[in-house]
Design goal:
The protein has about 190 residues and is α/β, with parallel strands linked by helices. It has one domain: Dihydrofolate Reductase, subunit A. The protein has 5 helices and 10 strands. It has helices at about 30-40, 45-50, 70-75, 110-120, 130-135; strands at about 5-10, 15, 60-65, 85-90, 105, 125-130, 145-150, 155-160, 170-175, 180-189. β3, α3 and β4 form a beta-alpha-beta unit. The radius of gyration is 16 Å and the shape is globular.
Amino acid sequence: MRKLVYYVGVSIDGYIAGPGGEFDFYPLSDDMTAWMTAEYPEIVPSHIRSQIGLDAPNGHFDTVVMGRGTYQPGLDVGVTSPYAHLRQYVVSTTTPEIADPEVELVGGDPVSLVRRLKKEDGLDIWLCGGGKLAGSLLPEIDELIVKSYPVVAGGGVSAFSGAFRPTLFTPSRTRSFSNGAAVTWYGRA
């Protein structure tokens, strides 16, 4: 069965974005960028893939689920289908419609959506963000891949928001990079 994998970058204090949706405060390095594009090419948005000449097959995910806040930055620059190389779902109760036929708007229960997607054949499902959506999907998350960056944000969008619901995960491996960031894989305990 397919897994729901929350692949996400976080600050030391647990934020995935700033108060205005900013995500450009994470320190990048050449070795981490090279690793991400080689190991997880599907997380690179389609319009950037073409700019950098990335023509790699999807290795881990064939579907992406994201909240409106995650989808919005693409819209702000005229990109209506940010991950055209994946099946795209935007979960939102405030977005009336999405004009791009490549992106499906889900206005209802994201748990039902994920349970249905898990039953299908294919690669895993990437939970791209945001924190409110991750909080509502916590019971369905099978794996966390957390890119921890050595920066304190001080406020913003939490990696998880919602009800207090302690959920154990077990770390399975970690990889460090020259910018002080580390990626840790966690499986549901």
